[in-house]
Each structure stands twice: as structure tokens, then as C-alpha cells.
């Protein structure tokens, strides 16, 4: 949800390797044409998959999303390499 005081975002992952630490972020652009991340890495809580491989997190970002931009969510391993990516669609 995006409002005057910023944007609330969340992520849910299933099928990840238990015991790993994953990072994530919302970025401007698309998976095919990546852009900068909204806010610093510290704004995004680490994802810690449970024994079933599931995990989720929510956070609040300062920037308000604009309908004029495109955005995507990126999931990264501990070495910062991309594991998964998904383009976001306006709701």
C-alpha cells in the first residue's frame, strides 16, 4: 500500500532452502531492465526460511510508489546474486 508517508510492502517465499538467509528489495524498473532499489538494504528484513522452506517479511519504505514507474521485487542469496525476480503490477 502506498500513501503520503511511504509504502508498505511484504514478501512471501515458499520452497527455499531451510537454514539459509535471503535478502530482498523492491526496485524501480523490471526484471529485464533493472534499476535502483527503493531505500537501503537495512530497510528490508532478512528472510529466514523455516524447515518447510517458507518465510515472509513486511516493511515500510519512505518513498511513495508512482504509477508512472514500473517496479519489481528481487530475491538475493547471501553473496548478493539474484535468485528470483518478479515484476510488480499496479493493483
Task: Please explain how this structure is put together.
- With 91 residues, this protein is mainly beta.
- It has one domain: Sandwich (Immunoglobulin-like), CATH 2.60.40.
- 0% of the residues lie in helices and 45% in strands.
- It has no helices and seven strands.
- Strands 4-3-6-7 form a four-stranded antiparallel sheet, with no helix packed on it. The chain has a three-stranded antiparallel sheet with strand order 1-2-5, with no helix packed on it.
- The radius of gyration is 13 Å and the shape is globular.
- The N and C termini lie close together (9 Å).
- The mean pLDDT is 91.
Radius of gyration: 13 Å
Unreliable stretches, pLDDT < 50, 5 or more residues?
A: none
Largest sheet: 4 strands, antiparallel
Give the mean pLDDT: 91
Q: What is the total number of structural domains?
A: 1
Number of helices: 0
Derived structural class? mainly beta
Q: What is the CATH superfamily label?
A: Neocarzinostatin-like
Percent helix, as a range, is under 10%
What form results from the Cα inertia axes? globular
Give the CATH class. Mainly Beta
Q: What percent strand?
A: over 45%
Amino acid at each position: 500500500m502506498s500513501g503520503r508517508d511511504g509504502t508498505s510492502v511484504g514478501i512471501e517465499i515458499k520452497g527455499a532452502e531451510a537454514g539459509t538467509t535471503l535478502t530482498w528489495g523492491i526496485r524501480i524498473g523490471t526484471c529485464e531492465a533493472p534499476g535502483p532499489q527503493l531505500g537501503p538494504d537495512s530497510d528490508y528484513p532478512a528472510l529466514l526460511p523455516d524447515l518447510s522452506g517458507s518465510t515472509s517479511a513486511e516493511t515500510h519504505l519512505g518513498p511513495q510508489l508512482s504509477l508512472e514507474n514500473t517496479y519489481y521485487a528481487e530475491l538475493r542469496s547471501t553473496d548478493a546474486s539474484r535468485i528470483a525476480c518478479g515484476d510488480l503490477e499496479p493493483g
